[in-house]
Amino acid sequence: MKNKRQDTLLKMIRENVISTQEDLMNSLLSLGYKVTQSTISRDIKELRIVKALDSEGNYRYTCAFDNGATENDNLGKYADIFSSSVISINHSMNDIVIKCYPGMASGACVAVDSLYGNMILGSLAGDDTIFIITNGEEAATELAKELNKML
């Protein structure tokens, strides 16, 4: 049942503009799936679903990792999500702070973790801010430089 629900959820976000967990939950409930907000949250995390800005200017859920795509396609998708979400990148000592458009930090953080996870000790995303810790000043400077290249 879980796999079928998750397949349905992926199909819904590919075919429709869905921008809230409540919309996802209500759509699944209308199709007969018994889900709660926590079920939707777990599905979003497991499926690596993120919010991104689409070509029409809508913030919507999208799958950050498309099973039919090549690794290079997915890397490009992460870069697109990051570049469309981020306003500024600053670093000090071994920390990096990334300011994002409201609601976009989570998706941008997934992109950073996927693209540069080997360069970071940890990351934390809020609504519009990402906080990244690296293992030193040199690492933070290098990562900030790489991230700025995507903007």
How would you characterize this protein structure?
- There is one protein chain.
- Helices cover 50% and strands 21% of the residues.
- The chain has 151 residues and is an alpha+beta fold.
- The strands form two sheets. It has a four-stranded antiparallel β-sheet. It has a two-stranded antiparallel ribbon with strand order 1-2.
- Strand 5 and strand 6 (129-133) form a beta hairpin.
- The chain is elongated, with a radius of gyration of 16 Å.
What structural keywords apply?
151 residues; 50% helix; 6 helices; four-stranded antiparallel sheet; two-stranded antiparallel ribbon; elongated; alpha+beta
Q: Which blocks of ≥5 consecutive residues have pLDDT under 50?
A: none
Q: What is the helix tally? A: 6
Structural class: alpha+beta
User: Hey, roughly how much beta strand do the residues contain?
Assistant: 15-25%
- Helix share of residues? 40-55%
**Gyration radius over CA:** 16 Å
The gross shape turns out to be elongated
Summarize the structure.
The protein has 151 residues and is an alpha+beta fold.
Tell me the layout of helices and strands.
Layout: H1 2-15, H2 21-30, H3 37-47, E1 49-53, E2 59-63, H4 71-85, E3 86-92, E4 95-100, H5 105-116, E5 122-125, E6 129-133, H6 137-149
Antiparallel strand pairs: 1-2, 3-4, 4-6, 5-6
